[in-house]
Amino acid sequence: MRDPYPLLRELRERSPVHRSEVLGGWLLTRFDDVMVTFRDVDHYSNEGRLGKAVEYLPPDVRSGFGDFEAHYRTRGLLHSDPPVHTRLRLLVRDLFTPRAVEAMRPQVQAIVDTLLDRVQGDGRMDIIDDLAIPLPATVIARIFGVPEADQLRIVDWSDDVLAFQGQNRPSVDLLLRAQRAIAELREYLGALMAARRAAPENDLLSRLVAAESAGDRLSEDELLNTSVTLLVAGHETTRSLIGNGLWLLLRERDRWERLRAEPALLAPAIEECLRYESPIARQPRRV
Hints:
Mean pLDDT: 90
Shape: globular
Radius of gyration: 20 Å
Number of strands: 2
Order of helices and strands: HEEHHHHHHHHHHHHHH
Structural class: mainly alpha
Distance between the termini: 25 Å
CATH class: Mainly Alpha
Largest sheet: 2 strands, antiparallel
Oligomer: single chain
Strand content: under 5%
Number of domains: 1
């Protein structure tokens, strides 16, 4: 995890299709091979891939993870293939167009200013705890319509939901932690959805509820699954981008100084950070 690139280079050169018992699957490291698994959805699927985490458990233990399996059995935004995925994606696409995101700039800038003001008097900050965690969590929660008092609860739930991922045969403790967080998130979101049905607001959750009410676009289970996904994935990756990007720039101060001197380079610098030290280093598929 600290420096995977020498090993990845060796795998690309010597074993580009490699069986990994650590991951419990085949590891592909060449670009052309990876793209096949993205495009050939008839043979490489998103559906059901995370629910498989409990399949190794003895039957008596696995029986206690019914809620976990039911959640990941549902075809949500990140757990589906076309045409289901296409339908779900259309529901949220317009909210994340460049124009829509640009319209959020004043609101996001105000959040950044508040977070920086809090540490200004100290003359120092922990970039993860003071900025990278609260900034995207606050932004996605506001987009979604989560009340301000509950916004940072999303961080704890998200950390618990993600704890088991990326491991072959995760421990029962990690799986229980994920199941408990999923259940709490679904209960919390279910209450918010009921409120939005009664009194819609100008937020993403109201839009998703409206789509569910239309009947032929989003089922109740799809709505809950997709809402959990958006809240978790909507901030965790940005947290990693902020941490990774600043780590890269502070390791090479000449790039940091150039970026300060030429602010126009900021957008391509962010894109390069996403490419060079990606928040998502792997993407599982089920054969």
